[in-house]
Amino acid sequence: xxxxxxxxxxxxRGIEPxxxxxxxxxxxxxxxxxxxxxPPRSAESHRAWTKEQAVAKPDGxxxxxxxxxxxxxxxxxAVGSFQADPRSGWFEYGITIGADHRRxxxxxxxxxxxxxxxxxxxxxxxxxxxxxxxxxxxxxxHRRLGFVEEGRLRDHxxxxxxxxxxxxxxxxxxxxxxxxxxxxx
Length: 185
Fold this sequence. Notes:
It is built from five helices and seven strands; from the N terminus they run βααβββαβαββα. Strands 1-2-3-4-5-7-6 form a seven-stranded mixed beta sheet, sandwiched between helices. The chain has helices at 20-32, 43-55, 106-121, 136-145, 173-179, and strands spanning 10-13, 63-69, 75-85, 90-97, 126-132, 148-159, 162-172. Helix 1 (20-32) packs across helix 2. It is an alpha+beta fold and 185 residues long.
């Protein structure tokens, strides 16, 4: 049997200290593509963060994983659950794929692996994701996976000198099970 965390194109794994260069690149990509704007960080800051992540224990149902290309072993992105409410049965997640690795199916596969774990193993009822309204590629990906737009927070995010809408999307566990049977990825 192959690992629960391995798909056709990718493998999800813990973050390693040597991943710092990939995470530095992802941060630069997000800024350049208009997804996120933060003050510049030093290489040492990225090294320290990945070192800390490499030994961090999951915080309940919140964790972050590296996305590794199955064919090359290269770190191509990250995915993780960053907020979870086990009592109400919902969680939120985030994903980033390096700019030079987008449109290869890595994001879709990583999201499906994460959802399969959170719905089937952790027994969550609902997944939520927040997407910048200008990120058409991410909106299209989530629609293809079966997420439904649940709302729009108007002018909710201020970035690069202007306000942007934030689109809230969600998927329920039974919708996921219907659209993505256990054996499929």
